Amino acid sequence: MYDVNEIRGDFPILSREVNGKPLVYLDNGASAQKPKVVIDAISRAYGEEYANVHRGLHYLSNLATEKYEGTRGIIAKFLGVKDEDEIVMNTGTTMGINTVAYGWAMPRMQAGDEIILSVMEHHANIVPWHFLRERQGVVIKWVDVDSTGYLDPQAVIDAITPNTKLIAITHLSNVLGTVVDVKTIVDAAHDKGVAVLVDGSQAAVHMPVNVDALGCDFYAITGHKLYGPSASGAIFMKKERMAEMEPFIGGGDMIREVHKDEITWNDPPMKFEAGTPGIVQQIGLGVALEYMMSLGMENIAAHEKKLRDYARTRLDGLNWLQVQGTTPDKAAIFSFTLDGAGHAHDISTILDKKGVAVRAGHHCAGPLMDHLGVTATCRASFGLYNTEEEVDVLVDALELAHDLFA
C-alpha cells in the first residue's frame, strides 16, 4: 500500500512552517526534499566512515570505496542497465552532457554537422551544443512542439539529414510535463546511424525507466531531483560510445600510468571520473534510489498520476489561469501565468506567504519561453510526498493572488 502520510513522515522538512503556514513544497522540479535515511547516511558517512576512495588499503578507505562503488550498481539497477560499467558517476546531468559534448561530439563533429534538439530542452542540454556551434560551426536544428506541448517523434525523425550526428532530447519536459516517445526516436535514429542522448533529469523521477530497453546511447540523471544530495548524479554511456570518446577532464583515477612523455588512460568508467569524486554525495544518492525503489517506481508514478488528474481538474476551474502544456499523459508539472499579474515572481511571492513553494522564472528553458510567447511562468511540480490537500492549498493561494491582481 502507498501511504502518502506515512511517506511524508520520512521527510523531516515537510513538518516545518513557512511564514506561519504549513510548508507546501511544490518546487520538486528544481530540487526534491531528502528523506531521513538519506540525511542519516550522509551524516554517518562524514561522521563515522569518511576516507578517500580507491587508493587506500586501510579499513575506512575500503569501506568508503565499497559504499561509493555500490552506488554504481544501484544506479544501474534503477535505470534498468545490466552492465554497471556503463554508468559514469558525476555531479549530475550538466556534467554528464558536457562529458559527451567534449569527449564524444567535439572530436568527431565538423562545420556543417548537425545536432537536433527539441524546443523544450533545458539549458543543460542546449549550452554545451552552442559551444560546438560557436567553436566548430556545428549546426543546431530545432524541432517545435504543438499547442498542447506534444512533441511528435516523427517531426524529430524527419529533421534527420545525412549531416545529422546526434539527437539530444529530453525524456520529460521540466516546464510542460510532456513525456517524449524517445524509443521511437532512438530506433529511427539508429537506423540512420545517428546517436541519441537523452536528458532523463525529470523522467527518472516520475516514472520507471529502462535504459537498456530504450536503446539510447547516453542517458543522464541528476541526484538532487531524485531525493538525493546536490552534486550527485550519473550518465549511462554505451560501451561502444565510451570506446569512441576522449576523456573530458584529466587528473587522478582516470589514468593508468603517467610518465614525462606518455600517459595511458584507465578503463571506462574510471576513464571519465577524474579526481576525488563526490564520495558522500554519491553514497547519499545510492540510498535515495534504494528508498525510491522500496516504494516502487510504478507506485510513485500511479500516485503522481492521481495528483496530476486532481490538480488538472482544480486548475482547469480557474478561467483566469493559463496552464502551459496540456498533453493527456503529462507528468504532474504545471507551469502557468495569471491574468493581471505583472510577473511570475509576483505570483510566487504571494503563494509563498501562504507557505506554498513554487518556482518562478524561465526554468532554464529560454527557447521554450520564446516559443510560448512568455517571459516567465510559475511552476508547481509535484513529487512522491505531495497530497491532494496540498493542491487545494495551492488553488486557495492562487485565488488570493487573483483577487489581489484583479
From TrEMBL:
Name of the featured protein: Cysteine desulfurase
Catalytic activity: (sulfur carrier)-H + L-cysteine = (sulfur carrier)-SH + L-alanine
Domain Aminotransferase class V: from-to ranges: 24-394
Annotated InterPro entries: Aminotrans_V_dom (IPR000192), Cys_dSase_SufS (IPR010970), Cysteine_dSase (IPR016454), PyrdxlP-dep_Trfase (IPR015424), PyrdxlP-dep_Trfase_major (IPR015421), PyrdxlP-dep_Trfase_small (IPR015422)
Taxonomic source organism: Marivita hallyeonensis
NCBIfam families registered for this protein in UniProt: sufS
GO biological process: cysteine metabolic process
Family: Belongs to the class-V pyridoxal-phosphate-dependent aminotransferase family. Csd subfamily.
Keyword Transferase included in the entry's annotation: yes
Primary enzyme class: transferase
UniProt keywords, alphabetically: Pyridoxal phosphate, Transferase
Entries under Pfam families matching the protein: Aminotran_5
Cofactor(s), names only, from the UniProt record: pyridoxal 5'-phosphate
Documented EC number(s): 2.8.1.7
Function: Catalyzes the removal of elemental sulfur atoms from cysteine to produce alanine. Seems to participate in the biosynthesis of the nitrogenase metalloclusters by providing the inorganic sulfur required for the Fe-S core formation. Catalyzes the removal of elemental sulfur and selenium atoms from L-cysteine, L-cystine, L-selenocysteine, and L-selenocystine to produce L-alanine.
Molecular functions per Gene Ontology: cysteine desulfurase activity; pyridoxal phosphate binding
